[in-house]
Design brief:
Elements: H1 8-17, E1 24-28, E2 33-41, E3 45-50, E4 53-58, E5 62-67, H2 77-84, H3 88-98, H4 102-112, H5 118-127, H6 133-147, H7 151-164, H8 169-181, H9 185-198, H10 203-216
Antiparallel strand pairs: 1-2, 1-5, 2-3, 3-4
Helix pairs in contact: 3-4, 3-6, 6-7, 7-8, 8-9, 8-10, 9-10
Length: 217
C-alpha cells in the first residue's frame, strides 16, 4: 500500500521545515521533529507556532525540547531557485499515476526517487492484482491534491478509495489529516479514531487526534 503519510506527506513536511527559521526543536517519542517557536508551555502540553499555525502537543508524547540558534546557511541562486519547487519530478510521477499512466509513472519514480518506495510499491500491488487500478488511481489523485494543498479535492478522491477499502489505516489517517487541514475537526476525529481502532499503538494518529480535539474546543 502507498503510505501517503509515510512518503508524500513526510516529504512535504521535511521540505517545509527546511525553509522555516527555527527557535526550538521539539522531538516527539515517535521520532518526528518539529522546528518552531514555543508560544505556550505548561504541565500538560506545549503549543508550537509552526508555518503560521499554533499546534498543541501533549507532554506525554514529547521526548525532549532543545533550543536551536544555528543560523541558516547562505544558498546560491541555483539552489534557491530549486527550493521554490523542491519536488517537480516526484510531483510529475504522482500526476502520471493519478491519470492512470502507471508505466510512465514507474519510470519517473525509478529515475528520480529510488529511495522512495511508496509509489513503486503501489504500482507493484496493481501488477500483482493485490489492489485494483481504480483504487490506486484514487490514492494517487488524493496524494496529488494533498501536495497541491487542494484538501477538498483530496477528500473526494480518498473517500472514493475508502469506499473500496475502509480498513486501510493509512487511508483513514490521510482523510483525517485532510479534514484537519480544513479545520473540520469533527470529521478528522472520526477517521483518526478509526486508525486507532485498527492500530491502537499508532502514536502519529494519536498525536493528530489530540490536536483535532484541541482544535474542536
Amino acid at each position: 500500500m502507498l503510505k501517503i503519510r509515510g512518503t508524500i506527506l513526510s516529504i512535504i513536511f521535511i521540505l517545509l521545515l527546511s525553509r522555516y527559521a527555527v527557535a526550538e526543536v521539539v522531538t516527539l517519542k515517535s521520532g518526528k521533529v518539529i522546528d518552531g517557536e514555543i508560544v505556550e508551555r505548561n504541565k500538560d502540553y506545549v503549543k508550537v507556532k509552526y508555518d503560521g499555525q499554533e499546534i498543541y502537543y501533549e507532554n506525554k508524547y514529547i521526548k525532549n525540547i532543545e533550543a536551536q540558534n544555528t543560523p541558516e546557511p547562505a544558498v546560491n541562486a541555483e539552489k534557491e531557485k530549486a527550493a521554490q519547487d523542491p519536488m517537480p519530478s516526484f510531483k510529475s510521477a504522482i500526476e502520471l499515476a493519478a491519470a492512470g499512466n502507471f508505466s510512465q509513472a514507474r519510470q519517473e519514480f525509478q529515475k528520480q526517487f529510488n529511495d522512495i518506495k511508496g509509489g513503486l510499491n503501489i504500482l507493484d500491488d496493481v501488477e500483482k492484482g493485490l489492489i485494483s487500478k481504480e483504487y490506486a488511481i484514487y490514492l494517487f489523485q488524493g496524494s496529488l491534491h494533498m501536495i497541491n494543498g487542494e484538501y477538498n479535492l483530496a477528500i473526494t478522491s480518498l473517500e472514493k478509495a475508502w469506499e473500496i477499502n475502509p480498513r486501510d489505516p493509512d487511508l483513514n489517517y490521510n482523510l483525517g489529516s485532510a479534514y484537519f487541514s480544513l479545520g473540520e475537526y469533527k470529521e478528522s476525529i472520526v477517521y483518526l479514531s478509526a486508525v486507532l481502532k485498527l492500530q491502537p499503538l499508532d502514536t502519529e494518529a494519536q498525536e493528530l487526534l489530540t490536536r483535532a480535539y484541541h482544535g474542536q474546543n
